[in-house]
């Protein structure tokens, strides 16, 4: 039985997926483009303005289009499966690990969630389905539509987080690569720290609009504002260029 | 330059030459950058800043440190602002509180002059009681004159931004004086993550006005260099099991530190003498702050009244700042520090100020000797002055320690209460430990006199020595009882200035020692804080369907349904329901709980949790299911669809989904079966396309054959609808031919718009939650928790067919249901009808033979049936067609007739079409 009706890409192309935040992003002045089967908010203001926000305060970006795939199985079977595909073995509690460019962590002993860039979702699903095929006790479910992603990036992202969660987000506690479950923006959430000055908040799609509103509201006094994904990409590209120069 | 502005003082906070304009009671005033409101007003010669709470006596600066109530003002419409700590800003509009028609002439001052018979201690228990019928009038009058300012009438004008922030730390130091700064520096130097909070605008505490300004600045720089986060001005509001909220501007920092260091120092205490509340009477610390930090002369000719060396220190400092000190009145017979005084300052030893004279401010003081036991003798002399600087010793600012669990002990040497036995993780440093013991004289025992000279114990609540004596005489002889009776220690200072004087007074009246009197319980907030700040930002997060925006665009009335915001209706729920019966309606059912249950044991697992058989379900078939507890009570219902041999798709009610998920996972863990449960509630959107023409509406949009034979009732299909891969269930909750379409929530908007917007012969219209409730009621489909309660069983709820006691598999609640099957309950859920114009309230009592015999759980007017229909729990003997009962409604009894079959399409032909 195909569970294609769970997956945004189950339609097999042609149907563009919309973020659960789309109406709210539109109200905030977002411009949209189709990228990898999704209509994503590429920008809200001018590129220099958004880059400046990320450089001096924090950008708040909708990353709901990221792929979110959940591996499930009895703890022993899941651990064994992860050992077979993750070079360093299953990540420890509160840690993420890299799986072909995706971030993967154990949300419980019998569940592991992998988050990847939108374009990589299909290939990652293929990988996970193939390994699950060899492990009859495990399965993979596409939760992309069920979870929204809000990325905070910039020097004041940590401060902003302090205003929306009681999770200890100090660099000494939430180290790069760490993951925590808890309340963020007054809703149940998973908080990831994939990179310096970058945080990803995963919340239920149904709770995402209110969570987004709370994040944006809390960020306003700090100068944090919504930014499009183009600003994130542009900044990443520039920093990579600087690193390679 | 103002006449009261002193020459430049070392360490002054003001910037000379940088003037700031503001208004006070509408008149233009000018201050300097760095001024507080109070220092600017004082420099401008304003001595009266407020009127007292009860007697409306004129009050002026007293503590100059944000502790006492004397300088509370309204700033830009916000009442309760302490002028002595609020920094001056350009354009500020400052107004006095609690006086009418003006600060200078307050009509309510009559209470002080002639109102004594009406305002004895605990007057609110004694006066304004008779005649009883006049109480509303009294109450209105009391409300008009009570309080400390008025909030703006419009809520929008009262709103200010309030943010909360959680700050984890290794060490929190509260108090930025010498001890606090050193503790913070030590911890930071050792590698700790340190937060330092101080309620002053500049770190340094008493160092700032006692000649150590440079050292204070150096220490402050040092802690900053060590990376200590400084919250200044930041007031600690309390201790909540390790969490200490710090209020700074419009942010409350919720600091969770592994270790708390309390360095809050001490609070200078007043002395009792008649007129000790007159403008011009200041604590020595207050006078020094004004003179040193803001270069404002607190007066031109001072008398210092003291019981210790602090008075002598203050006199020296005031003289150095340029204030003439007429005399020091010291209760000690031979003060040791007297030799430090210059020849121009007279020391009157073994004496005290008996009374401060003046109407609106101090003009002179009467001095008397202090006899044994602190009893003053007769007036010996009168000294002209406009400033009385008072030092009545110090009390450790130990509220935070006490809240954290420290014991309180009376310290004889300092005559104050100190914290002892600190809990783990809490440390006290500096003078808050109460170790500063020096030579102390007796605290004089001065009382009010018959001429009206009042001697105040509590400035906030206008409580006098005489009031305390009266309270003790009436039996309120403990500090806690006296507090409640007199309201002493309950005002804006929260006992800082009156706790110790109250204890001393009660001890004297009861012939005991302050150690036996003790102090009141320390409770948060330690500092007065706007309630709006505690409340924080006004968010009410909930769950929203992916179609939320569409509903709003369509004019849907959004309402809460559990944690979800749902479209209640689009203007006319009755018409919406009727349209579903006649044509086709589209209902957003995304909030339904939706779970995937997978694994080799999935079928057996479901057989164990549901009372009916699900393992026998064929693939792509659907069965209704009721979940019951171990006690056989209904907890939720929904549908179960078998997708393949090992995969089931389970739906639940909207409100029950979280509990059902927890329930399923609990039993899964208990049984250790190989089953995987995935919550898809947010992943999938769902909409119910229902109505006799729903098939015609759906067919053009899908590759699925939606014909009655190809896709029968209670079957499921997968396939594309409007290009989106969907799971389509043929269900009949609303009693008409219907297709429940489930799709990735990210495509829900597209599908909704396509179905509603596709031109064609079928007029599909949105229908809201209320229409759905009407439709399901016409079919007598119950809603768990609305039509059932914690005692409802499937037998009582007229669902006996759902329980398969002959099932081989044991299941939750079986034993209880077997018992129930043999022992019918005392009530049954039945349908009833009533005339159209006689709809009952949900929850109304069912009345049989004039006595309550049940209750109505659901009731609506059905447009299609043109009558009222409902569900009610009634005695079993009434659970038969045609039985009649009454429903209590607004004092009358409405007639109702039992109908055991669905009111609409009882054979179910329409939903199976």
Annotation field: number of helices of chain B: 23
Q: What is the H/E string of chain A?
A: EHEEHEEHEEEHEEHEEEHEH
- Runs of chain A in which pLDDT lies below 50 for 5 or more consecutive residues are none
Largest interface: A-B, 63 and 56 residues
Note the main sheet of chain B.
7 strands, mixed
Share in β-strands of chain A: 25-35%
**Count of strand segments of chain A:** 14
Q: In angstroms, what separates the terminal alpha carbons of chain B? A: 94 Å
Counting helices, strands and paired strands, the structural category of chain A is alpha+beta
User: What is the mean predicted local confidence, pLDDT of chain B?
Assistant: 93
Oligomer classification: heterodimer
**Cα radius of gyration of chain B in angstroms:** 38 Å
What does this structure look like?
The complex is a heterodimer of chains A (245) and B (913). Chain A is α+β, with helices and mostly antiparallel strands. In chain A, 31% of the residues lie in helices and 31% in strands. Chain A has helices at 22-27, 47-56, 75-85, 121-134, 157-162, 208-219, 229-244; strands at 17-18, 31-35, 38-43, 59-62, 67-72, 97-99, 102-108, 111-116, 139-142, 147-153, 178-184, 187-195, 198-204, 225-226. In chain A, the strands form 3 sheets. A 6-stranded mixed beta sheet of chain A has the order 11-12-13-10-4-14. The longest helix of chain A has 16 residues, at 229-244. Chain B is an alpha+beta fold. In chain B, strands 8, 9, 10, 11, 12, 13 and 26 form a 7-stranded mixed beta sheet that branches. In chain B, strands 39-40-41-38-32-42 form a 6-stranded mixed beta sheet, with helices on both faces. In chain B, a hairpin with a 2-residue loop joins β12 (243-248) and β13. The chains are: A alpha+beta (245), B alpha+beta (913). At the A-B interface, β1, α1, β9 and α6 of A face β8, β29, β37, β40 and β41 of B.
């Amino acid at each position: 039985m195909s569970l294609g009706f769970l997956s945004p890409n189950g339609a097999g192309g042609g149907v563009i997926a919309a973020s659960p935040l789309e109406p709210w992003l539109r109200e905030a002045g977002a411009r949209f483009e189709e990228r990898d089967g999704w209509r994503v908010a590429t920008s809200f203001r001018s590129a220099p303005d958004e880059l400046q926000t990320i450089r001096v305060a924090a950008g708040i970006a909708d990353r709901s289009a990221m792929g979110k795939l959940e591996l499930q199985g009895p703890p022993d079977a899941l651990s064994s499966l992860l050992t077979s595909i993750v070079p360093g073995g299953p990540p420890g509690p509160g840690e993420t690990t890299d799986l072909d460019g995706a971030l993967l962590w154990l949300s419980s002993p019998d569940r592991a969630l992998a988050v990847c860039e939108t374009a990589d979702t299909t290939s990652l699903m293929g990988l996970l389905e193939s390994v699950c095929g060899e492990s009859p006790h495990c399965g993979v479910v596409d939760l992309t539509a069920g979870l929204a992603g809000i990325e905070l990036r910039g020097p004041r992202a940590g401060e902003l987080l302090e205003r929306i969660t009681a999770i200890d987000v100090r660099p000494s506690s939430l180290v790069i690569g760490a993951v925590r479950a808890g309340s963020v923006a007054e809703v149940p959430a998973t908080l990831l720290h994939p990179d310096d000055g970058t945080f990803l908040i995963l919340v239920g799609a149904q709770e995402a609009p209110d969570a987004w509103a709370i994040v944006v509201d809390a960020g306003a006094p700090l100068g944090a504002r919504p930014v499009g994904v183009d600003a994130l990409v542009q900044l990443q590209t520039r920093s990579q260029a600087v690193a390679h120069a | 330059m103002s006449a009261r502005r002193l020459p430049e003082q070392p360490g002054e906070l003001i910037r000379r030459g940088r003037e700031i304009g503001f208004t006070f009671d509408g008149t233009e005033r000018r201050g300097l950058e760095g001024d507080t409101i109070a220092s600017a007003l004082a420099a401008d010669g304003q001595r009266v800043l407020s009127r007292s709470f009860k007697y409306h006596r004129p009050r002026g600066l007293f503590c100059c440190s944000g502790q006492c109530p004397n300088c509370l003002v309204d700033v830009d419409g916000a009442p309760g602002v302490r002028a002595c700590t609020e920094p001056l800003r350009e354009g500020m509009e400052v107004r006095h509180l609690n006086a009418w028609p003006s600060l200078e002439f307050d009509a309510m001052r009559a209470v002080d002059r002639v109102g004594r018979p009406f305002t004895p201690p605990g007057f609110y228990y004694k006066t304004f009681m008779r005649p009883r019928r006049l109480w509303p009038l009294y109450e209105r009058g009391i409300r008009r004159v009570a309080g400390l300012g008025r909030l703006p009438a419009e809520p929008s004008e009262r709103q200010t931004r309030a943010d909360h922030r959680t700050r984890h730390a290794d060490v929190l130091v509260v108090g930025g004086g010498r001890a606090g700064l050193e503790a913070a520096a030590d911890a930071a130097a050792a590698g700790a993550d340190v937060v330092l909070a101080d309620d002053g605008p500049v770190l340094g505490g008493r160092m700032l006005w006692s000649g150590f300004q440079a050292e204070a600045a150096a220490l402050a720089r040092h802690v900053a260099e060590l990376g200590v986060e400084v919250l200044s001005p930041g007031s600690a509001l309390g201790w909540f099991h390790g969490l200490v909220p710090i209020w700074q501007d419009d942010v409350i920092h919720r600091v969770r530190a592994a270790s708390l260091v309390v360095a809050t120092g001490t609070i200078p205490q007043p002395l009792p003498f008649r007129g000790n509340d007159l403008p011009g009477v200041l604590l020595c610390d207050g006078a020094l702050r004004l003179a040193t930090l803001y270069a404002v002369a607190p007066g031109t000719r001072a008398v210092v009244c003291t019981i210790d060396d602090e008075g002598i220190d203050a006199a020296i400092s005031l003289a150095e700042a340029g204030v003439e000190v007429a005399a020091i009145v010291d209760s000690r017979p031979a003060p040791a520090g007297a030799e430090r005084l210059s020849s121009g300052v007279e020391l009157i030893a073994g004496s005290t100020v008996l009374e401060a004279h003046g109407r609106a401010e101090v003009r002179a003081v009467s001095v008397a000797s202090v006899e044994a036991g602190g009893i003053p003798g007769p007036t010996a002399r009168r000294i002209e002055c406009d400033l009385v600087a008072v030092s009545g010793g110090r009390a450790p600012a130990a509220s935070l320690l006490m809240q954290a669990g420290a014991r309180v002990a009376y310290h004889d040497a300092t005559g104050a209460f100190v914290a002892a036995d600190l809990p783990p993780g809490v440390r006290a440093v500096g003078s808050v430990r109460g170790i500063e013991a020096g030579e102390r004289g007796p605290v004089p025992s001065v009382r009010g006199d018959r001429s009206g000279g009042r001697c105040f114990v509590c400035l906030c609540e206008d409580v006098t020595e005489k009031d305390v004596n009266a309270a003790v005489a009436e039996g309120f002889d403990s500090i806690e009882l006296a507090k409640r009776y007199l309201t002493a220690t309950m005002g804006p200072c929260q006992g800082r200035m009156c706790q110790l004087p109250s204890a001393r007074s009660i001890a004297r009246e009861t012939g005991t020692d302050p150690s036996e009197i003790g102090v009141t319980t320390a409770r948060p907030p330690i500092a007065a804080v706007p309630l709006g700040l505690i409340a924080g930002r006004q968010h009410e997060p909930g769950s929203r369907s992916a179609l939320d925006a569409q509903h709003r665009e369509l004019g849907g009335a959004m309402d809460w349904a559990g944690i979800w915001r749902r479209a209640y209706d689009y203007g006319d729920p009755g018409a919406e329901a009727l349209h579903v019966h006649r044509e086709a309606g589209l209902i957003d059912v995304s909030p339904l709980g939706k779970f995937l249950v997978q694994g080799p044991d999935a079928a057996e697992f479901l057989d164990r949790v549901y009372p009916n058989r699900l393992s026998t379900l064929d693939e792509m078939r659907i069965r209704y299911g009721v979940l019951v507890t171990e006690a056989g009570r209904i907890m939720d219902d929904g549908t179960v669809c078998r997708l393949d041999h090992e995969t089931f798709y389970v739906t639940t009610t909207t409100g029950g989904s979280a509990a059902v998920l927890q329930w399923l996972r609990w039993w899964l863990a208990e049984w250790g079966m190989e089953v995987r449960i995935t919550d898809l509630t947010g992943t999938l959107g769902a909409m119910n396309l229902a109505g006799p023409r729903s098939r015609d509406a759906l067919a053009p949009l899908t590759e699925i054959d939606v014909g009655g034979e190809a896709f029968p009732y209670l079957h499921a299909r997968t396939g594309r609808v409007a290009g989106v891969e969907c799971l389509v269930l043929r269900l009949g909750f609303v009693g008409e031919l219907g297709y429940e379409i489930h799709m990735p929530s990210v495509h829900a908007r597209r599908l909704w718009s396509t179905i509603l917007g596709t031109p064609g012969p079928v007029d599909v219209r949105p229908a809201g939650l209320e229409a759905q409730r009407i439709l399901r009621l016409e079919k007598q489909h119950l809603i768990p928790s609305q039509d059932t309660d914690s005692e409802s069983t499937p037998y009582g709820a007229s669902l006996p067919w759902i329980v398969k006691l002959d099932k081989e598999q044991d299941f939750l609640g079986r034993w209880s249901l077997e018992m129930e099957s043999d022992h019918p309950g005392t009530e049954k859920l039945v349908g009833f009808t009533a005339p159209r114009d006689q709809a009952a309230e949900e929850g109304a009592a069912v009345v049989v033979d004039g006595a309550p015999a049940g209750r109505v759980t659901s009731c609506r007017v059905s447009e299609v049936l043109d009558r009222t229909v409902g569900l009610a729990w009634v005695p079993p003997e009434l659970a038969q067609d045609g039985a009649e009962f009454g429903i209590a409604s607004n004092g009358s009894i409405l007639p109702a007739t039992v109908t055991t079959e669905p009111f609409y399409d009882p054979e179910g032909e329409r939903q199976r079409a």
